[in-house]
Automatic annotation (TrEMBL):
The lineage of its organism: Eukaryota, Metazoa, Chordata, Craniata, Vertebrata. GO terms for molecular function: signaling receptor binding. It comes from the Eukaryota. It comes from Notechis scutatus. Keywords: Immunoglobulin domain, Membrane, Transmembrane, Transmembrane helix. One of its GO terms (cellular component) is external side of plasma membrane. It is found in: Membrane. InterPro entries: BTN3A2-like_Ig-C (IPR053896), Ig-like_dom (IPR007110), Ig-like_dom_sf (IPR036179), Ig-like_fold (IPR013783), IgSF_BTN/MOG (IPR050504). Gene3D superfamilies: Immunoglobulins. This is CD276 antigen.
């Protein structure tokens, strides 16, 4: 049918077009429209994947180092709104670089990079929002002790201070215990002398009476 239709078109406007040819034309047109609409709907309904968040570099880090927190999300439409938040839910707006590129399907892949000064026990969240669907996907990364490498000097200083503090506590405990023992001995000595003083007073009173 399609080959006959093409032959009729080649013959020019004088070619006789049968009714079923019109049906074929309509079917082809409807198919093209439906394919186009499905492609558009696919794009409008494309939600972004859950972001992948990682730290660069991820090893041999020290507090105060400048690091990158990288966030990836894939296959969404239209372009996303990217937000960064700290561990308290506050928005971060500085030192952010975001890029969005369309892939072969016409959907967008998102990459966002946040540069921060490394701090222990900190959390960063990447939020990817589809503005048409009002959907938000997010992921977080927490900076813990396993990411950090404290300097050897600082470690030895900490150990040395801890040892000094322990020795000081032991010395204070010994001095306090010695003071307590000495005080107890003095109290006992006073208690032992008290009866003798009472006897002396009684003798003096007896002599005065005589």
């Amino acid at each position: 049918d399609h080959s006959k239709l093409q032959q009729d078109w080649k013959k020019g406007p004088t070619a006789i077009v049968q009714p079923y040819d019109y049906l074929n034309i309509i079917a082809i047109a409807v198919g093209l429209v439906l394919n186009h609409l499905s492609s558009i709907l696919l794009r409008f309904l494309a939600t972004y994947s859950k972001p992948n968040v990682n730290l660069e570099p991820s090893k041999n880090l020290k507090p105060g180092d400048l690091v990158k927190v990288r966030c990836h999300s894939f296959s969404g439409y239209p372009e996303a709104v990217v937000l960064w938040q700290d561990g308290h839910g506050n928005n971060i707006t500085d030192n952010i670089t975001t890029s969005q590129m369309a892939n072969e399907q016409g959907l967008f892949d998102v990459q966002s990079i946040l540069q921060v000064v490394l701090e222990p026990n900190s959390t960063y969240s990447c939020l990817i929002k589809n503005p048409l669907l009002q959907e938000v996907t997010h992921a977080s990364i927490s900076i813990t002790g396993q990411h950090l490498l404290f300097p050897a000097v600082a470690l030895w200083v900490t150990v040395g201070l801890s040892i000094c503090l322990l020795i000081l506590l032991i010395v204070l405990a010994y001095v306090c215990q010695k003071k307590i023992r000495q005080s107890c001995k003095e109290e006992k000595a006073k208690a032992a002398l008290q009866p003798l003083k009472n006897m002396d007073v009684k003798e003096d009173m007896a002599e005065e009476i005589d």
